Structures are given as C-alpha cells and as structure tokens.
Amino acid sequence: MAGANAWQAPFGELGVETANLLLLGTILTLSIFADALANRTCLPRISLLVLVGVGVAMVQQWGLGHDGGQPLGGLTEPLIQVALVMVAFLMGGELTRERLRSTGALIVMVSLGIAAVGITVVGLGLLALGFPLVVAVSLAAISVATDPAEVSETLHETGNKSVRARLLMGVVAIDDLWGILVFGLAMALLSWQLDHDAGTALLMAGWELGGALLLGAAVGLPAAWLTGRLRQGEPTQVEAIALILLLAGLSSWMQVSALLAALLAGALVVNLSVHHRRSFNEIEHIEWPFLVFFFVLSGASLDLHYAGQALGVTVAYVLLRLAGRYLGGLLGVVLARRHGVALPASVGLAMTPQAGIAMGMALLVTERFPDHATLLMSAVVVSTVVFELFAPFFVRRVIR
Questions:
Q1: 315 and 386 Cβ atoms separated by less than 8 Å
Q2: Each residue of 57-91: b (16+ CB within 10 Å) or e?
Q3: Contact yes or no for 17/74 (Cβ under 8 A)
Q4: d(CA 136, CA 280)
C-alpha cells in the first residue's frame, strides 16, 4: 500500500481508505472537465485522461516526493482488471456467427500480418542497435499486445459502425491471442538460450491460454442460459456485474488471460442467448467510470525517476513498433483488397495502443530476468503512456 500512503500525508489523519476515496472522486471530477474540453476541441478525451494520470504521477512523485507506481495501492490492479474484462466481454459480443462467416478469415489474416511484421521489425531493429538479447526479444513479444479499451472507446466516441470499424474491432479482439502465444514462445526461447529451461515457460503459456478458454466457457455457458430469464432492470444489472467480477477475479486467481476468458464468454452469450442485448447494454451503462480509472491510472503508473534511464531503448522501441505496425498494415491492406474490403495504408497504426497487458508481460519478464528489470519496465511504461496519448489520432485517421 505504499502508493496509497503517498496520498495520505496531505489529508492528515484521514487514513489510507479515505485518501483513496478522495483520489477516486478527484479523478472522476477531472474526467468531467476532460470530457468538456474534448467536446470543444479536436483532442480525444482518452489522451486527455492519460495526461490527467501523468499529472497525478507528477504530483505524487515531484510534489509529494514519493515513489511512483500505483497511486491507489492495492486498488489499482483490480480497477484496471475490471475495466479490461468489461471491454473484452463487449468485444466478444461483436463476434457473432454472421460476422465471423463474412470477415472471420480476413480478421485472422490481417491480424497475423500485422503481428508477424511487427515482431520482426522490433526484434531485429533492437538487436541491430546493440541492445541485449533479452531486451530485444522481450520487447518484440510485448509489441504484439494491443490495448482493446482505447480502440473500442475511440470507435464508440466517433460513432462509426462501418465494415472498416467492425473489422478493426475484430482484429483488436484476436490480437491479444497472438500476443500471449508469441510471448510464451519468446520466454521459452530465452529460457532455453540462457538457462536451458524452456519447458516451464511453454507450460505457463499453455495454461494461460487453455485455462482462459476453460474459464470463459465455464462462465459464459451458464450466463448465456441465464440471460433473458430474468426481467429487465435491477436483476439484469446484477447479473451483468456479477459476470464481470467473476471473470476478473477467477482469471486473476487462476493466473490465466482475463481478456481471452472474457472474450470467449462474450462470444458465447451473444451467439447462444436469445436476449443477449440485455447484459451487454447493462455493462455499457456502467463501463465508462471504470474506463476513466483505467486511462488515468495508466498515465499515473509512469515512474518519472526512471524514465530518463531508459530513454534510448524507449525511443527505439516506440519508433520501431510504429514502423512495424505500419508495414504490417500494408500487408493487411493487400489481404483485405483480395476480399473486396478497402483499408487505408495506415491501418496498422490503429493497432498501436498499449496498456495493461503490455505492463503485465513486462512484469513477468523482470521477474524471470531481474538484471534487465529497470530498463524493461521503464521502457514499457513510458512507451505505454506515449502510445495511449497518440493512438486515438491514429484510430480516427484509419476509420475516417
């Protein structure tokens, strides 16, 4: 609770819990002003919320002189987890049978093209610049992960429901699957190369994927049966919240991918339930406050004390990842054209947002290779803030 204690001092004897409540209220209040500013300018409100988070980090670390990290202490991780599960569940609701029949193959091909080219460009680029093997391979694997919350919210903000927007949602939905697979293989490769222990990393990756599928089915199938059997109103809202909290809590306890589990659960509900819109609508009604916390806390997680130490690798990673996504998008454009769908050349840039998944992967790498912990964590956190700030502009450009 070190992060939370940082906010206790200015409020005297109020205590950690009261200080956390005041900070949560302050974040939501600032989000109202950010939303008003976004409505009067061309600035995406997501970028403004991330800037609010960076301001929180500055106050905490420079103003109060405390360590960076989690301003809400133990509350930070659950809030981020719940927000991501909500987004993933809603994205699973986009994967209807009809949509999968019409664009499923194209979604897989475009996402694979972007991921494969991106990994190659980032990994080989960092190695060519002289960075250690662990850093180059780890960042190449982490580069695959995309933040679904930012892409989803930007599309919702614009109100675009075109084929291009739906295709982008599908690509984002499957992107983290490739990210988990690539990350597991990368950790196995590094373990085999450095300490000849690839089996453990492969088992962990297999469980993260397989366990997530089991959890998604275990929660999604009963939810699909239950949805529509309760009357609309409060019971349905309780049902939706219970579904999200169960997915978030069980995935954390089982150490499996919360995104993949929620994605599968959403897909099962939308395809098997007659009145599936009820649960999705209830989640949409309560989603925004959690997304506010998600974007603000993403910015607040920036550790300003270490940001300068990783400046070189951070700049290289950001530029190489942008180049890899752009080139991968060009391959996606060619594949889409063969299926009669026109995509802009910059489609890969819409896949640049990174947040919780990338930071979670970075934490796993630092636990396994502590010698590179400071460099990797600083690079991932700083680049995450950069991508969260500028990615909404890319997403808007692609779907315009």
A1: no
A2: bbbbbeeeebebbbbbbebbeebbbbbbbbbbbbb
A3: no
A4: 40
Query: How many Å apart are CA 47 and CA 389, to the nearest integer?
Result: 4
pLDDT tens digit string along 2-49?
444 444 445 445 566 777 788 788 888 888 888 788 777 766 677 777
The Cα 310–Cα 286 span in angstroms is 38
b/e 322-357 (16+ beta carbons within 10 angstroms → b): bbbbbbbbbbbbebbeeeebebeeebbbbbbbbbbb
pLDDT tens per residue across span 333-347: 787 777 666 677 777
The upper half-sphere exposure of residue 400, i.e. CA atoms within 13 Å in the direction of its Cβ, equals 9
The shares of helix, strand and coil residues in the chain, as percent rounded to the nearest 5, are 80, 0, 20
Q: What is the identity of the amino acid at 40?
A: R
What is the model's pLDDT at position 321? 92
Helix (H) or strand (E) segment spanning residue 148: helix 148-158
Per residue in 92-134, pLDDT (tens digit) is: 777 777 767 766 677 788 888 888 888 899 999 999 988 888 8
Q: Are the CB atoms for 383 and 318 separated by under 8 Å?
A: yes
Nearest to 383 by CA among 324, 319, 327, 292: 319
